[in-house]
Design brief:
It is built from 15 helices and 21 strands. Strands 1, 8, 9, 10, 11, 12, 13, 16 and 17 form a 9-stranded mixed sheet that branches. Strands 4-5-7-6 form a 4-stranded antiparallel sheet, covered by helices on one side.
């Protein structure tokens, strides 16, 4: 949104405000090529009992081929299914490790072929063995965008051989898809049309978790999928609840990521977070063994910062919010004046944004992304403060642009958006701009701000982003590639062939070399192009009962590491 933090991202509430300049958690990617299992021990952890996980949201699907909401992906990845790779969280740091695979893959000299070998002895929850053909089928199934993969990620379309035309095994059952093949029962080979150095990150997605074709029930598969993780589904009611019980065929000895602490896990969807969190903090009924991942609500903020602080955890998430500026119609000198005038503090106060919901942003990528190092804020982009309308007005005057017309949409049906707009409009008007603010409904807003034919020049396109994996190739090209601008799905409508070429060059670097290059590009884009104003790093938060233990934030997903929770 133009005037607020990430509103639709996973766990985008809570945290603490602070200095705008981030402290990078890693200057290089956290990767480990060998990890056999079992997962690292957790001191004091107990087994047994029932854990309840609640969420305000209700993901549209838990099918591995279509899951693309953070919550559904985490439930799948950490509790139900295993993919070729995954994230091992230790001491607050998430390291990419091999999961079903023996290592992070063997890349050919030309970078167009990746080979993975499966660990031995891994079985589904029905006792049948996992085979390479099942991984191949799962990847093919993820192309079924008109059915089980609807709304899912589409990276495989652009990278795998034949991916641009393949429709999946349901629509094209006789097509010999060349993008992924099996060699025997334990080897999976990916065939690419262009280099994909970060493929091991994608292979942590549930879309790559094995599915035996003979047991695929298509639309109903998500109801009782074949589990390879520590739990299996006992019951599932879409949009309401899911009950998990222990999977007796889970191979702990080969799993470097997951534990099997609770005997039973009950997941409740679409809950009222206010009543749920109040019940949790009162330790009423099942509240003592419940964790809510909706994000802390205002009514309990005094409690979780006071005597209930031990039942509250917050931390960074993969999401960030921005205010985009149309680089095609707004000159750079004017964009710089907008940045100087931007009233961060007034907008937050007017919209009622709690300091538990954000950290001020000063970079394009969140600070936990490897390579994103702190640099002095450029063009006044501190992420906080009242702005300086007088200085911005002088800048406009010097550029001969006093009275420059700015136009944007805001949501007129939400009081917080209306009040935030009052603050923004006042600051921009004081800075010498002519402001045209157009109120639209919450339902119409997403369509209007991504309409490539719209004439508005502020807040169009992407104003919040959650990365898919902690690498610049899942952030900068997605926000700034010229191809994105053509569909209205960019941040700032940049259409730079030179920038596109630079991003492609970095994308082709090995993971270990690309991180620093992406970090330098972050500063370059804000300094030289200024297509967007970073506003908030979204903060994830969780409220939990006094019998829920080891709540660890996963900054790459904005959710707790579900595989480490225990009750007692």
């Amino acid at each position: 949104m133009l005037l607020a933090a990430c509103s639709g991202g996973p766990g985008s509430s809570s945290g603490s405000s602070g200095a705008a300049a981030p402290t990078a958690s890693a200057t290089a990617p956290l990767l480990r090529d060998v990890a056999s299992g079992p997962a690292p021990q957790i001191a004091g952890a107990k087994t047994g009992g029932t854990l309840t996980i609640t969420d305000e949201g209700a993901p549209p699907t838990f099918d591995p081929s279509g899951a693309y909401y953070e919550f559904s992906m985490m439930v799948l990845d950490e509790l139900l299914v295993r993919s070729l790779t995954g994230y091992q969280n230790v001491d607050g740091k998430a390291t990419l490790v091999p999961d079903l695979a023996t290592d992070l893959g063997e890349q050919s000299a030309d970078g167009l072929t990746w080979t993975f070998h499966l660990k031995h002895g891994i079985r589904y929850s029905d006792g049948s063995p996992v085979r390479a053909a099942d991984v191949v089928y799962a990847v093919k199934r993820s192309f079924a965008y008109d059915s089980v993969a609807e709304g899912g990620p589409q990276y495989v379309q652009q990278y795998l051989k034949g991916g641009s035309t393949y429709k999946g095994p349901f629509d094209q059952p006789t097509v010999d898809f060349p993008g992924v093949t099996a060699q025997g029962d334990d080897t999976v080979v990916f065939h690419l049309v262009k280099k994909w150095p970060t493929l091991p990150y994608y292979l942590a997605f549930p879309e790559v978790s094995p599915i035996p074709q003979a047991k695929d029930t298509k639309a109903t598969y998500q109801n009782h999928l074949l589990a390879t993780g520590p739990y299996e589904i006992q019951s599932f009611t879409k949009g309401i609840s899911m009950v998990l019980v222990r999977n007796p065929d889970w191979s702990a000895a080969t799993d470097p990521i997951r534990h099997q602490f609770p005997a039973r896990i009950e997941i409740q969807l679409g809950v009222n977070p206010q009543t749920t969190q109040q019940r949790i903090l009162a330790d009423s009924g099942t509240g003592s063994t419940t964790i809510d991942v909706s994000g802390v609500v205002a009514s309990v903020q005094n409690q979780v910062t006071g005597d209930k602080k031990d039942q509250f955890v917050s931390g960074l998430s993969p999401c960030e919010s921005y205010t985009s500026i149309d680089t095609q119609t707004v000159p750079l000198a004017v964009r710089k004046a907008i940045a100087i005038a931007y009233p961060f503090d007034q907008i937050r106060k007017a919209s009622g944004e709690s300091p538990l919901t954000y950290r001020p942003a000063s970079t394009i990528a969140p600070p936990q992304v490897p390579g994103v190092t702190a640099y002095p804020p450029v063009n006044g982009l501190t992420g906080h403060g009242p702005g300086d309308p007088a200085k911005a007005k002088a800048m406009l005057s010097a550029a001969g642009q006093l009275g420059f017309s700015l136009s944007y949409y805001f949501i007129d049906s939400q009081p917080s958006s209306v009040q935030a707009n009052v603050a923004l409009k006042a600051a921009l008007t004081a800075a010498g701009f002519t402001v045209h603010d157009l109120g639209v409904s919450a339902q119409q807003y997403p369509t209007d701000v991504t309409n490539p034919s719209a004439t508005q020049n502020l807040g169009q396109g992407i104003n919040s982003w959650c990365y898919d994996w902690p690498s610049g190739d899942s952030i900068y090209p997605e926000l700034f590639a010229a191809s994105r601008a053509q569909t209205g799905q960019s941040a700032g409508d940049l259409q730079s062939a030179a920038l596109d070429a630079q991003m492609t060059q970095i994308e082709n670097l090995p993971i270990t070399q690309a991180a620093a290059a992406w970090g330098k590009l972050d500063q370059q884009i804000l300094s030289q192009d200024l297509p967007t104003i970073p506003v908030d790093y979204a903060i994830a938060s969780y409220v939990f009962g006094d019998r829920v233990h080891n709540v660890v934030n996963d900054a790459n997903h904005g959710l707790p590491d579900l595989a480490q929770l225990w009750v007692g």
